[in-house]
Amino acid sequence: MSLPIPVQRGPLAGVNYVFRGSGRIPEQSNGSVDDFRGMLIVPVGNELIVFGTVTDQGSISRILRTLEALGMLVDSVHRVRELPHPDARRSASPSP
Fold first, then answer.
1. 9 in a domain, yes or no?
2. CATH code at 35?
3. In whole numbers, what is the pLDDT of the chain averaged over residues?
4. 17 pLDDT tier (thresholds 50, 70, 90)
5. Origin, by domain of life (predicted)?
6. Which helix (H) or strand (E) element contains residue 57?
7. Which of 12, 67, 87, 90 fits a 20 to 30 Å CA distance from 42?
């Protein structure tokens, strides 16, 4: 069963957030999740870090539910000034 991931585009301003936890999120989810633009998933060891821009502060609980439905157990949520460059996922992954 796959979950629909609504895409929202437009010139909406937002606040950058980082969600930290454990679990796995499918690679194809590395796009926009409802009210969460520019989502970047970075697995680091046993930890899963998800960065993105929240366009509606009231939607954080919905974003948390969506991340959990995708397979992530969220431990913490924090505002951040800047998001990492999309290549951060590659540099954070352990080398073979």
1. no
2. 3.30.70
3. 74
4. very high
5. Bacteria
6. none
7. 12
